[in-house]
Amino acid sequence: MESERYERVLTAFNLGTPDRVPWALWGHFPATKFLEYYSWEKANRDGVESAKAHMALLNELDYKMDLLKVTPFYKYMACHWGSRFRFVNNEEEVETVDVVVKKTGDWSKLWVLDPKKELKENMRAVSILSREVGKRMPFIYTVASPLVQALHHVSTPERVYTDMRENPDALKEGLKIIAETCIDFSRACIEEGATGIFFGIGGGGDIWSRMNQPQLEEYALYYDRMVLEALRDAPITLLHICSNHMENPQLNGGLMEGGWFKKYPVKAINWWNASFTPLHVAKKVYGRDFCIVAGVDHSNTMRYGTPEQVEAEAKNAIQEAAEDGGFILSAGCTVFQDTPLSNFNAFARATEKYGRYKR
To answer: What is the pTM of this model?
Structure first.
């Protein structure tokens, strides 16, 4: 095992000071333009394709990424429950054709997916990556919050919010089944060699602006904790707080800077710091509890900036948040599929130039 990257990443996740600031970038890699030989659609049904695409990304880079975040099609569980999606021309935005939960009674149609049956291709990707890259570097697999899956994967916001008001028990039955699926699958991933889980909340919107704090705690946090408490022993649990400029947990309720996310039993948090809650503020609020994973704007700088601009923003992030450790340089969300490879390399180069700690 090449222990350098493991030691660097795990030291940061455990709020320590590694030899250098670790870095990680993630996107919908089979859909990324410079991975032209791989299919986003095929990767959703073929674990070999998914694993190969992620390994191809690592091989394209001029620098060694410290942490690989595996990004399957974000609605992969819903496909097995019966929702249908249309992939077109390898675009990362995928159209929803049909959802499985159309009426209240449909929540009871969900069942706990088996990692060795319905989710076997996702497990195949984990197994391959464990053999091919797991000896050299840590990697984590993506799992979406039960509420996110309810809102945007297996049903619609209209159905969910109607049932939240009128049929809460039926909705909670569905959320519990999704949570149990997340637990079983996450544990299986870690047993198969993944270092941990990337847990996404808020994805798709219609959460921060439509739910007050008691609702968030009853329908989101309760089931999120159910999943994450079951993964307490995982080396890495990274909470991704998905958002956009108008749909974020600071604009809607002051949750981020009020410390609300301390309720999550995770080791690290990631959010779009260019849109809300600057790095230095988050470091003060959360730095004693979580590793901070953020730094460069995925929507503007990474996508449209020059390599020099990417490097400058990365340098500023390191100077703002890396002191005393507990920091990993990343972007605020999945980088867009047309993000230039040169900007990936500029991002990594910044950690080599500016991320070394004095010993």
So the answer is: 0.97
